[in-house]
User: Which sequence fits this backbone?
């Protein structure tokens, strides 16, 4: 489990050559500010981040220290916990098992009699609605069942229909008798660079089993069947994330959270008013300017795609794991879509050159059982390339733009260079972790700052 940011790391108060009483006031204010920030971190730690890591809590912390037996995962081509010591010398790594398409089982894995496999056509509004509802009611929620992810319909289309998508990889399970959709797992094609090597993979997401069918070992069947379908297309590696520890993370990150609308966050029980803080002072602490400050920052447009894509590819060379977008991929993932993805470029006012970009996506959560609010609007940091503008300034603008777009909170993982701006911009650490996994690939594990891959 993550720890709150130690107080020693807090920025010291700005000291100016002032008279004694002023210094005392500064010191008292600094002490109060530090205490307030510490309390806030604890409050945030207690509530906020739990929901952002799938099945966290007791199970996750237990498994962090005590690697439990994995009846399913111990049979799969993934790095096993016991192998951990041998990994540091592996570098870019290699496949754990090598097969050909001819080796792949031709028939779907059997389901118990009353269920059947179903490919979900997310271009069909009725089927999209079924997937949306399944996730809306059964996907990831916080430990206290106060919030549950509410991926929008348009988000699901964006997430599941990138260039090269396959309908057979949008895999559901239906009840035979009434056709009710009760489980889902998806794969999408992606090209990543891993330890400087290009690799064709799939990203696995939206693993979900209806609440009434939990603990019946349906998840392993879903994972086996999606693997078979992906293998049939001659793809042998996958990337996925989970809040729980499985064999065996290649890297792990913490979520950090930045309040944009502290009043609402407090009212819905997402965070608490810190002791000795009034609502007015809390709002002042998190207040942002009315507009972004970087000259030339504006929403990304189609005409920016070649330059912005080049910029991102160049920036990502700093990291050991990241996506490797073609311009077509980039256009899909980054061109702004209202309510889904928000992307901005910095265009140099003199040269017209695109010097930086930043983006975030919208992943709201249902606020369960609150009479006044139905939705928590959360923005998630997505792809950023700060080449000329200091990252902290670019991200301050991202916060401002998120606030202008009515988001209540801005979330970011501590991967890539994100840790460099968290303190200055009043982010607070959550207590959940997000673990990254590779299927059928063993390589040197990496620190979160080496990773720039953000999965949805
Ligand atoms: C995740 C979920 C599908 C698992 O289903 P379940 O009914 O709880 O578990 P099952 O009995 O079917 O299967 C258990 C196996 O699946 C594995 N498993 C559970 N969650 C997993 C995950 N997120 N990713 C990969 N494997 C997972 C377990 O480790 C276990 O295998 P093991 O014995 O080798 O350790 C289900 O709990 C769910 O829908 N949760 C809400 C949504 C969610 O958290 N999705 C995952 C997002 S990362």
Assistant:
């Amino acid at each position: 489990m993550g720890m709150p940011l130690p107080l020693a790391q807090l920025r010291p108060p700005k000291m100016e050559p002032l008279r004694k009483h002023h210094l005392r006031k500064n010191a008292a204010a600094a002490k109060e500010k530090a205490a307030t920030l510490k309390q806030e971190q604890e409050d945030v730690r207690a509530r906020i981040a739990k929901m952002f890591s799938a099945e966290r809590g007791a199970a996750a912390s237990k498994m962090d220290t005590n690697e439990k037996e994995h009846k399913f995962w111990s049979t799969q081509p993934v790095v096993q916990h016991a192998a951990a010591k041998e990994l540091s010398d592996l570098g870019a790594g290699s496949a754990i098992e090598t097969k050909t398409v001819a080796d792949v089982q031709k028939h779907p894995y059997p389901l118990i009699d009353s269920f059947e496999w179903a490919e979900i056509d997310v271009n069909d509004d009725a089927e999209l609605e079924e997937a949306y509802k399944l996730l809306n009611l059964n996907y990831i929620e916080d430990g206290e069942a106060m919030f549950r992810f509410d991926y929008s319909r348009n988000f699901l289309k964006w997430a599941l229909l990138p260039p090269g998508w396959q309908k057979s990889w949008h895999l559901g399970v239906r009840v035979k008798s009434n056709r009710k959709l009760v489980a889902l797992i998806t794969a999408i094609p992606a090209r990543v660079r891993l330890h400087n090597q290009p690799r064709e993979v799939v990203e696995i997401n939206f693993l979900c089993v209806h609440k009434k069918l939990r603990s019946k070992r349906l998840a392993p069947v879903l994972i086996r069947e999606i693997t078979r379908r992906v293998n049939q297309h001659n793809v042998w590696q996958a990337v996925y994330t989970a809040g729980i520890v499985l064999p065996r993370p290649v890297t792990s990150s913490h979520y950090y959270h930045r309040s944009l609308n502290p009043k609402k966050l407090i009212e819905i029980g997402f965070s608490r008013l810190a002791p000795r803080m009034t609502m007015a002072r809390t709002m002042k602490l998190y207040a942002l300017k009315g507009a972004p400050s970087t000259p030339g920052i504006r929403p990304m447009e189609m005409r920016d795609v070649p330059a912005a894509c080049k910029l991102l590819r160049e920036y990502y060379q700093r990291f050991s794991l990241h996506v490797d977008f073609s311009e077509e991929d980039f256009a899909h993932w980054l061109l702004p879509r209202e309510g889904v993805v928000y992307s901005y470029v910095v265009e140099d006012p003199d040269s017209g050159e695109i010097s930086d970009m930043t983006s975030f996506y919208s992943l709201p959560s249902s606020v369960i059982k609150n009479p006044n609010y139905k939705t928590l609007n959360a923005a998630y940091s997505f792809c950023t390339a700060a080449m000329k503008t200091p990252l902290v300034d670019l991200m301050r603008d991202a916060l401002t733009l998120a606030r202008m777009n009515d988001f209540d909170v801005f979330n970011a993982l501590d991967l890539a260079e994100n840790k460099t701006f968290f303190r200055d911009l009043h982010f607070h650490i959550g207590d959940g972790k997000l673990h990254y996994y590779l299927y059928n690939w063993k390589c040197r594990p990496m620190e979160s700052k080496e990773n720039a891959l953000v999965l949805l």
